[in-house]
């Protein structure tokens, strides 16, 4: 059982940076893979980044690779998404997800979801 709450979203100028946080509760947090998905207005939810149980392995969507960094701190039950060089196309609601499917890039591969946090990028 995992409960997730995202924070850190807001308005940023193109080229700027934001760091999203996802705080989790649940005694088995460290056993779950974690991921960030995003959903722009009128679009389907899409994969952004994922990190394995140990934090040793990460994967990124091509659209964010080299700009975004996912990390986790199991002691703090928190996963982060550092977003640099933000583009207007990055504007979306960002969702934190937990599951046992690190290799999945589909929302169906994850069992638990946060409420989302809005990221807006000005042109």
List the helices and strands and how they pair.
Blueprint lengths: L2 E5 L2 E4 L4 E8 L7 E7 L6 E6 L6 E3 L7 E6 L4 E6 L8 E8 L12 E2 L3 E6 L1
Parallel strand pairs: 2-11
Antiparallel strand pairs: 1-3, 3-8, 4-5, 4-9, 5-6, 7-8, 9-10, 9-11
Please provide a written account of the structure.
The structure is a single chain. The chain is mainly beta and 123 residues long. Helix content is 0%, strand content 50%. The strands form 2 sheets. Strands 2, 4, 5, 6, 9, 10 and 11 form a 7-stranded mixed β-sheet that branches. A hairpin with a 6-residue loop joins strand 5 (46-51) and strand 6. The relative contact order is 0.32. The model has no long low-confidence stretch (mean pLDDT 93).
């Amino acid at each position: 059982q995992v409960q997730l709450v995202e924070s850190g979203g807001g308005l940023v100028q193109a080229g700027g940076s934001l760091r999203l946080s996802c705080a989790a509760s649940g005694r088995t947090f460290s056993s779950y893979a974690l991921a960030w998905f995003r959903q722009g207005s009128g679009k389907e939810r899409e994969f952004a980044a994922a990190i394995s149980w140990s934090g040793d392995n990460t994967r990124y969507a091509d659209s964010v690779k080299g700009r975004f960094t996912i990390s986790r701190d199991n002691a703090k039950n928190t996963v982060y998404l550092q977003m640099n060089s933000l583009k207007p196309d990055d504007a979306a609601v960002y969702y934190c997800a937990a599951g046992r499917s690190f290799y999945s890039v589909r929302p169906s591969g994850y069992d638990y979801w946060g409420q989302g946090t809005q990221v807006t990028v000005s042109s």
